[in-house]
Amino acid sequence: MQMTRGGQAAVVGVVMLAVTAGASPVTASHADPKPSGLGRYQSQDIDWHNCALGPDDPTGQKLDDAGAQCADLTVPLDYTDPGGRTLTVAISRLRAADPAHRVGPLLLNNGGPGGPSLDMPLTVGAAMGEVAKKYDLIGLDPRFVGRSTPLDCGWDVGSTVFSAGKGLAGFKHSVARQRNLAKRCRETNADVLPYVSTRNTARDMDIVRAALGAQRISYLGYSYGTYLGQVYTELFPGRTDRMVLDGIIDPTRYTQTLLTDSTGANERALRAWAAWTAARHDTYALGRTADAVLATVRRIQQSAAEKPLRVGDFRVDEHFVPLVYFSGLGSDLDKPRADLATATRTLARAADRQPAEPGPGLSELLAAMTTKAGSQQGSVQAAILCGDVATQRGIQTYWRDIQAGRKKHPFAAPLSYNITACEFWDRPAEAPTIVDNDVPALLVNATGDTRTTYANARQVRERWARSRLVTLPGAKQHGIYGEYGNSCADTQINAYLSSGTLPLHDVSCRA
To answer: Whole-prediction pTM value?
Structure first.
């Protein structure tokens, strides 16, 4: 689903242990009967240690260099059977440097579903500045993500989201691919799939809270992390302090096709990027007008539909070319726009059947999307979403939606309306969470967000009357705080995290 922040961000997590086909990815241990129930998890001693796993672990090394520590907490696989099988969730901690004014732990989630968050104390700490000294910043890799007990269905591709392609044959290929993805997960991980869900991740968060000795936690979540935060407040009312939700998902619109809301925003973002690129024709040579740049994009798509493009060692077909653009349209800042323009030059050469070598960014993206390198994170992403909301709609309903949407949104609709593996998933073990509380929180969203549309933020704001909304009008950006460089928004968030006092009114920040 790629509901993570930024532009062409890497989508491959750090994996401690690969799970082979047929192997159980959880520890088949049994609880000591004393203490009983969840008490042994809530009261467990935390064994803090260095974060680096070895010399080839830059993330861990950066955490160590910053003075952070890491640990692995034990949680139950099945919360209805706390004496049964267990798994571990990996956490990091950057301790408060000003203990006299310490607020408590601030849990961090980077989105996804399935996005690793262990390194977030570094990035969020930089955005917080002096305010960070008041918090123990806690990075958490959710269950089965990153360094936590892994899940991997052994897929041939990394992304579970791709375009239906040009015609019915392409759509049928998408159906077969998604059916196969679901089949592989069921064959390799059937015993744990019922427990891969947002609700169980929220329960793990509360184990982390208790193990840290905190009565309440503060929370900062981006994108999918905003949904996770809302679910936590519903399952554990009264256990949150200061909450910041950035790039907001409306829980009533959280479905297996949750990208459909962003169809129009992505179409508009593509045209805006084309205009930006056309104004720099002397640099990128992709066309002197927005229409000419878009014609270049269409030519690339058409060529990929006729025969997969050869880009370095990668083969990029009509299903993944649009995903390159979708991944690059998460921000309207100059750098991600330049990266997408550079990638388009490479794809244009490949479309002309000329040698085309991808740069480091495009190479990493293509590896994560089109090869087994992204299997682990793609597996978890699908398992979480489908474990939350899988519904059998009927295959033809997707095709009808694609065809209807294609008339107005020819680029975005075949991707955002396309079938998902959830169509072939088993029914979730629990019903989706109905969030009907009212929590004081600071909500943040751009009006042109290409992942979580502004309408989502407005709906949550209306539901949470005690919350406040910081809006960036006109910005086509997913993930604002510490990402967009907007001093107004960053100042509002830091003031709230420092004082615990929300603004008197909603705030509009010039983009």
So the answer is: 0.93
Residue matched to tokens 């179409």: 267
pLDDT tens per residue, range 151-180: 999 999 888 999 999 999 999 999 999 999
Upstream peptide bond of 113 is cis (omega within 30 degrees of 0) = yes
pLDDT per residue as tens digits for the range 450-497? 999 999 999 999 999 999 999 999 999 999 999 999 999 999 999 999
Cβ partners under 8 Å of residue 147, min gap 6 = 14, 15, 16, 70, 72, 90, 116, 118, 141
CA distances from 32 to 21, 80, 208, 328 (A): 30, 16, 19, 49
User: In 371-447, where does DSSP find H-type helix?
Assistant: 375-389, 395-406, 413-416
Q: Please give the single-letter amino acid code of residue 93.
A: R
Question: Distance of CA 264 to CAs 47, 325, 382, 414, Å?
Answer: 48, 14, 24, 12
CA–CA separation, 103 vs 320, rounded Å? 45
CA distances to 287, 319, 364 from 315, rounded to whole Å, are: 25, 11, 14
What per-residue confidence (pLDDT) applies to 29? 34
Beta strand pairing status for 135-141 and 86-94?
Answer: antiparallel
Q: Half-sphere exposure of residue 256, counting CA atoms within 13 Å on the CB side? A: 23
Nearest CA to 22 out of 222, 211, 237, 189 is that of 189
Give the end-to-end CA distance of the chain in Å, rounded to a whole number: 26
* DSSP 8-state code for residue 39: H
Cβ–Cβ under 8 Å, residues 341 and 6: no
Nearest to 359 by CA among 388, 332, 324: 324
Q: At what angle do helices 263-278 and 321-328 cross, to 10 degrees?
A: 80
The owner of tokens 């994560």 is 368
Residue 359 amino acid letter: G
pLDDT band at residue 2 using 50, 70 and 90 as cut-offs: very low
Residue 76 banded pLDDT, cuts 50, 70, 90:
very high
Answer whether 301's CB lies under 8 Å from 322's CB.
Answer: yes
Q: For 19, which DSSP code?
A: P
443 to each of 125, 208, 480, how far by Cα in Å?
19, 24, 11
Q: What interhelical angle do 360-370 and 334-351 show, nearest 10?
A: 70
Task: Classify 279 in phi/psi space as left (phi over 0), alpha (psi -120 to 50) or beta.
Answer: alpha
Show Cβ contacts of residue 342 under 8 Å, excluding neighbours closer than 6 positions: 284, 359, 362
Where does 420-460 show beta strands of DSSP type E?
442-446
For 124, the 3-state DSSP assignment is: helix
- Whole-angstrom distance, CA of residue 141 vs CA of residue 120: 10
Measured CA to CA, the distance from residue 151 to residue 377 in angstroms comes to 8
Q: Report the distance separating Cα 336 and Cα 477, nearest Å.
A: 11
Amino acid at 228: L
* CA 114 – CA 152 distance, rounded (Å): 12
Q: What is the length of the chain?
A: 511
Q: Which residue has tokens 């998604």?
A: 178
